[in-house]
## 1
Amino acid sequence: MRHELKIDDRTLSYLDFGGAGRPLLALHGGLSEGAHFTALAAALGDEWRVIAPDQRGHGDSDLASEYGREGYVADAAALLEHLAPGGPVPVLGFSLGGINAYHLAAARPDLVSALVNVDAPVETPRQDGPSFWDFLHVLPYTAPAREELVAALGPLGEGVGPFLRPLDDGSGWRLPFHPGATLATLAEGDGPRWDVWLASSCPALLIHGLRSDVLPQELADAMVSRRPGTSYTALDTEHFVPFQDPEGFANAVRTFLAGLA
């Protein structure tokens, strides 16, 4: 069920998949939204109550005035405080959401009992030549016809297409994320984040796509070995682990959560 939380006159929209199980906060990646955890929520069944916000500038949440890491973390903390789950909860994050999740664990250990990092690195890989994100500079947010947006998305069209929204006035369609928000997030820049990754002490799991171009094997190994209490699961995917192996992803999450006290 979709709900809304007002934060400084801005709407943060979130999905609460319900059930009597323990809460699990799930933070999506860039160019995404909370609804992408629907399959995970179904796979975890009644044991876990998945709560998945649309992070600022994504899904049905409003745009924000800034996209620094502190803002993303403040939104997640405000949501957990609003939900008042009765204690710290496990937090899962993929890509952008994974970075936000381990920042949240470092900044607010009172809110986070365990951490699931899905292919989110502590160092941004160096890219020579054109960036994957360059297309966002010309990607329209709205279009009169749904097909126009699907075509503009290129190889992402098939995956994003089902999540396009009709405009309220019936004049066309919009993306489930705002390209400007993603560009603003990238513009904030991120240097090495080892200090943040190592700042939390809760149990953690790193789920790694073996063919990921975002998280090289050497860096994944170092993240696990340098942070006490961190376990590791590798899946034969590229960076988009939850979508390329949803069953393996859900099994890894379920196994880790089952081992928590």
## 2
Amino acid sequence: MSGPGVDRVRLAGLLSSVFGGRRGLDAVTRLRGGSKKGVYRLGFDDGFSAILYVWSAGENYWPERDAEPEPFADGTGADLFGAAHRTLDELGVRVPELYVLDRSRSVYPEDVALVEDVRGGSLEALLKTDPAGGRQALDRLGSALRVMHGHTAPRAGKVALVERGESVPADSCEQAVTDRALRHIAEIAVRDERGARARTRLDDAVRTRAAAVEPRSEYRLIHGELGPDHVLVGPDGELVVIDIEGLMYFDVEWEHVFLAHRFKGGYEPLRVPGLDDARLRLYTLANHLSLVAGPLRLLDGDFPDREAMAGIAEHNLAMVLALVSAPG
């Protein structure tokens, strides 16, 4: 059954340009989880399958708002995907094979990409069903992250923008994070009474942590939102990184705060020495604030998985309030 936004007639033309007449489209299934782009599994009459990404306004559940400055502006788009895919592929970090990336809209009415359907499940599932195998996979992921984080640039920003010579319109990574965190506090305050009561305390905590951060002038390649659900297991057991549009040059501490939050007890194999403690303190608070403000904003619209999104906001608000209540 077709999902919303898929034009099967026009899709046939796109598929013909990729596969010729060798395959007939048999099924289109919308996959859960995409909030900024449509993600569909395409099944063919010869048993082959592929994943279709569709970037369009109708596939983006986030309500309209004033655009955030880079590098935190909306991390979606075919151009961001293409630059990120190319960069990771050149570094030897496994990503789904790209069959076609089409921004011409001459074959299909939206920007689209057709990529490999990696059917081995997620690292998140592997960690639950096979802890020993999951531990080995975490070691391999740690190696891939060290390759990524060893790739540096003199400017911060999403890969596509840095390649074009565009830079972050902020004094530094920590300034961009600080400004964003303060905006998130304001957004939370108008949506949640507890956030409103704690607003002054939250503002003070962000500014105090930001003041302790020393300047830096070199930035490392990070995924930005790498959780165990954004790593798939390939046909030979290799790890495949997905949801890569937000790939950017930034402080590596931002990556590690997110990794620690999402991998929880599985974070140890990913931990590295030499991280800046002051950045970690600021970015930990800012990350939790983003995971309150973002889901609450998403719930202003018609995002379908509302219970899960509300749960994310509630959990992270509790974390935020605990952080600013703790001594030191």
## 3
Amino acid sequence: MDITLEKASDTNASLKITLTPADYKPEVDKKLKDYGRKVQLKGFRPGHVPASLVQKMYGKSILVDEINSMLSKTVSQYIRDNKLQVVGDPVPNREEADAIDWDNQTDFAFSYTLGLASEFDIDFNDLPSVPQYEIQAGDAEINSTIAELQQRFHTHSHGEEVADGDTIYGELNQVSAPEGATGFSAKTAFPMAKMADDAKGQFIGKKKGDVVTFVLEQAFPDEKARANATGAKAEEVANLTGEFTFAIDDITRHEPAELNQELFDKVLGAGAVEDEEQFRAKVAEIIQSNYARETAQLLRLDIEKTLLDSTPILLPDEFLKNWLMEVNEGKFTPEQIDEQYDDFTKSVKLQLIKNKIADKADIKVDFEEVMEATRRMVREQFGFASSEDAEMNQTIDRIARNYLMDEKNNGQNYTSTFNQVYDDKVIDYAKTQLTLTTQEVTVDEFKALVENR
């Protein structure tokens, strides 16, 4: 076998492979013998079909299959052994392949067009520092969060007069029912927040014992809200129209919880804090922890941007655009390929950079790491806390393995999880090599940064 790489430029090359009988004949002969033992042909006992007849019937197809298999393995192995930065897939010269005389040739020549990325290196010492944002919860965020907590843990009180936001309880009666029908009547509750603004004035300021006459569909134009307000079945609501009376029996409203020990204990657990100052400090910690995932994600994006901006890589643009058209089989027009090409090349370059970092740092991912990542996903998805319970852990393991080995998606679950673990390890390593500069920002400043990304 003869293999030659010819580079036309930094980004374009051709790989030429020449095969002689010594390369493929031993395996072809072996497969012909296997066929001879297994083939069943009328007039011959199993295993006694003449070799010449087996050759005539199956020799060509076995030869073609064996050479195609050998080419695929050879090209992949050559790229790995020589650490070629191949982008896209090797493209075979189809004209040469179509011209082969499989019946008479014994030596075969094949060529592949390769798209290559230009040579590059990563030196973390030459890279600029990357900002690592640390959110500082200011008084505005703390006050807003405490106000939300007070509303969430509200108490109930009884009002003297109806106000917006109250819930009023009483008896609802239809003034004039359709002919031949019994008028609708029900004990029910009206949430003022669900009532149309134009109708609220008829109720606000009313007291217990007052009777309000109103048009039901004007107060609750939405049929779902009308069903909730009346307690009627969905199919009956469309017929509930016209004037109704509502006799007010009670008025309740939500009162924000007082800022006291009872609220502190409900929010943080009994005895976690003892006064408002400690409570505010804990709320600030909660706000910061709630943004921990977002700040980590922004750091990741900034690291990737720094790597891309600081690492010039040339790509075979014409080759890649043609390859994208071919592999997508007419799903995209050349114009659509051009529109999305910049994003595609950023993704390609970033993956090349990460692969280079992984190679230099000897970063690898084993099966147990993929399993552990999947276990964490299962625990989060099903709400399983970390536990020493052996039976629970066996259940989590079984679910994780079934997910990774799901044959319905051809191993895509394993591949995607492997890639995520690999990506995380590369970024974590980059964090240890780059200079990270901590920058304190407010919640609003951080939100603005995220929007700009």
